[in-house]
């Protein structure tokens, strides 16, 4: 286990406050422009897929990939480059497709939870809670399938709320640290 140095935290309250305000500001931006947030995430994932595909292609061409793995690496490179291009040129299709895949997964997860709850109900008293989780998962999955763009915007807003709360908490904590720094003059002086 490690110990945190309180003095260091107290001395660096300004940096913590700035990080908190920046995080909260990004959270507000994500809440105000959820569509832009989703599109930015799609572009980042697309850039990552494209870059990994290109780098894998370079590995193949430079002989870094063994002969028996070449076809698999070529498939990986091709799919990565294709995903990147689709994300750049057709971002709305990418968002919808990704959310649909997630929605199918959530429905399958919910169905398995519901099946488990039904088979366990005679043996475990509160198995209905697992069944409830399964029904909720299925419901959310169906909503995501029916309204993928709205679901994406909702996720962006929730992400924005998450960032805002984290940033505000950091900033408030930094202000509390500032009070501690002013009460103890030895902590406000920087060591030489």
List its salient traits.
mainly alpha; single chain; 192 residues
Description:
- With 192 residues, the chain is mainly α.
- It has one domain (12-184).
- The chain has 8 helices and no strands.
- The chain has helices spanning 6-11, 13-32, 34-61, 70-89, 91-120, 127-146, 148-183, 185-188.
- α2 (13-32) runs antiparallel to α7 (148-183), α3 (34-61) crosses α5 and α4 packs across α5 (91-120).
- It is extended.
- The model has no long low-confidence stretch (mean pLDDT 84).
What does this entry show, briefly?
By secondary structure, the protein is mostly helical.
Number of helices: 8
**Beta strands, count:** 0
Radius of gyration: 24 Å
Work out the strand percent: under 5%
Structural class assignment = mainly alpha
Considering DSSP H and I runs of 4 or more, what fraction of the residues is helical? Answer: over 70%
Instruction: Tell the overall outline.
Output: extended
SSE series? HHHHHHHH
Total number of domains: 1
Question: Which runs of at least 5 residues are low in confidence (pLDDT < 50)?
Answer: none
Overall residue-averaged pLDDT value: 84
What is the terminal-to-terminal distance?
29 Å
**Biggest sheet features:** none
